[in-house]
Amino acid sequence: xxxxxPAVETDGLTKRYGDFTAVDALxxxxxxxxxxxxxxxxxxxxxxxxxxxxxxxxxxxxxxxVGGHDVVRDGDAVRGVISLTGQFAxxxxxxxxxxxxxxxxxxxxxGRSGAATIADHLIDRFDIGEFRDRLIKxxxxxxxxxxxLAASLVVQPQLxxxxxxxxxxxxxxxxxxxxxxxxxxAEGVTLLxxxxxxxxxxxxxxxxVLIDHGREVAEGTPTELKARIGEQRVxxxxxxxxxxxxxxxxxxxRFDVSVPAGGRTLSxxxxxxxxxxxxxxxxxxxxxxxxxELALRRPTLDDAFLALTGQPPSETASPExxxxxx
Amino acid sequence: xxxxxxRAPDRAALPDLPPRPGAAARYVRETLLLVGRQLxxxxxxxxxxxxxxxxxxxxxxxxxxxxxxxxxxPGTRYQDYLLPGLVAQSIAFxxxxxxxxxxxxxxxxxxxxxxxxxxxxxxxITAQVIGQVLEQILGLAIVIGLGLALGWRPDVGPxxxxxxxxxxxxxxxxxxxxxxxxxxxVRSSDAMQGVGFAIVLPLSFLAGTFVPIEGMDAxxxxxxxxxxxxxxxxxxxxxxxxxxxxxxxxxxxxxxGMVLWCALIIGIxxxxxxRRFRTTSAA
Lengths: 326, 283
Known about the structure:
Number of strands of chain A: 14
Radius of gyration of chain B: 22 Å
Number of helices of chain B: 12
Shape of chain A: globular
Number of domains of chain A: 2
Order of helices and strands of chain B: HHHHHHHHHHHH
Structural class of chain A: alpha/beta
Oligomer: heterodimer
Number of helices of chain A: 12
């Protein structure tokens, strides 16, 4: 793969199941050394897309090339450069963590000692040591996810695809996954990441592709998209209507306060995030007005869809929704 | 685990990939690796181990001492009638074992992991079949050993033993392919257990495994005469005891009949399973 060959390039990529179109003429491009996030709700076609790239399912029409290799005509070459980690740990439950890693290394073509060296390196790196000799079926979700990520790195892929890597993980495990992703990116691994969390795409991706119903609805850098979605806000929730009026009087000289009609929430743009939060908190405290809640609110996937498409995202219960297709 | 413990890797120290061998050598290597994975997992799943060890023992003891006390087969001791039937039944039960294991693999996504590696897909499915056949051989060895200990006396020469081994292997391969195909179609191990028993259990009871087909009513007798399992039972019984069967062409020519049945099953199931394997993926 030369530096100019896109890691992923799709042209009109489409997958239909009968009447249902899971992925609809998607044009996707991932340049080497970048992180692209496919962001969308359940059933948007994220998993179907990455499964086509990993040659697990065949496109209905359109083309997809991974590292310059066509996924239909040259599947074996594609499998040599891509590594997919799905939503659910794809490990042999009746083997230990280490046995799984060694098996993956040997299937990739390494000899016994080479596979063992790689496995031990990954065990060290992902801090798997304390449960390396336990069967996968006895591990917790977070532990399995770590082994799963390690397994997808056994192959030392040029393109790593992570399908919803943090769905269902506790916050601490999520941080571990994020840190791992950042480390990999620092090494120059090209990454395609699907997620339902705007926050995750924002934290990790160079470019975000927002999809719904298998179609691209917006695309750009996180900064570009956030500029279109709107900023983070601080919400101050008063305890009653009198509180709303008093807080408004206290805050309005310094901030751009908006109050949705009839609500108890005062909403203030917070481009400087926690700095703004502190400033607003100081004013509220100074006013002496009691409040229910004071919180920094980041735009959610719902906000993004509302801002970019004028509609909330669909939660389709399709025959091949993300959960089923996983 | 804190985020600090995720260390920057030292990729330079990691071994490079050895040169890639030819396609045939890769296929053999990958198949062996995947069979190894299956064999290592058997003793770690108690319920699966019991399917191939305890269950045949229970069947053998139950039928020999419960039914055997009431069933009299003219001209033969019940051990010599029952044990060839149980050997055939073990072959048929391979459908359930292979189907359940395949459905489990597909539902956990581990098969997709293998399929997304640069590994021959034919190797993945061959390994599935070989691993299951080896697992069933373990069960068969227990049935045969227990049968011999309880007084089964096969009437065989060295050539008969060779023929028996060949027939048993052929039967195992055919029924395992059928099971692998079923497992991919059903895609849930619980459903596979249910469907498998609903098909295999009646067919094995109708097959003259425990009682002769000749004594059954017209309808079960007709089904039994054309039940592929009857031919397997008749073939094993013919080679091991010299017992002849009647009622239909396959029963009167049991060895050729069994070879033909197995060839038919393999001829249908292998292409369908390979096709299904290429196009389907985890549930």
